[in-house]
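I have been asked to look over a protein record a colleague put together. Alongside the sequence sits a line of tokens, each denoting a local backbone shape. I have pasted the whole thing underneath without changing anything:
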Amino acid sequence: MACFITPLIIGVVLTIIRKLWRGAEKFRLDILLYLMLGGALVLAAEHVWHGEVVPWPPFLTAMQSPEDILVIISEMTRVGGTMTIAVTGAWLLLLGFTRKLQVKITPPKQLVTTLGTKGA
């Protein structure tokens, strides 16, 4: 129903952080941003496809009355929160793996000698 709202909100917050914080490139927030927004977009499309999201208010078919807001919030926290935590965990693993890979790939520094220089 509304599980796509949680990663969508996190994606918007990450967009703002990425624009304001200069160190975002170091932590590859762009990858997390694309994962969150892409996942939210695919989930929203899937919900529209199955008729759970409609183009008229209140937009969510599960929310027929104002009392149903608790159901929406519950799904956003349980399902959407779990998906957001899982995607963030996958991003952290990817970030750690690439950093370890960069350490292994960096070539050793070459030794500089003065044995073959002219004028010595």
User: Anything to note?
Assistant: The mean pLDDT is 87. The CA atoms of residues 10 and 36 lie 7 Å apart.
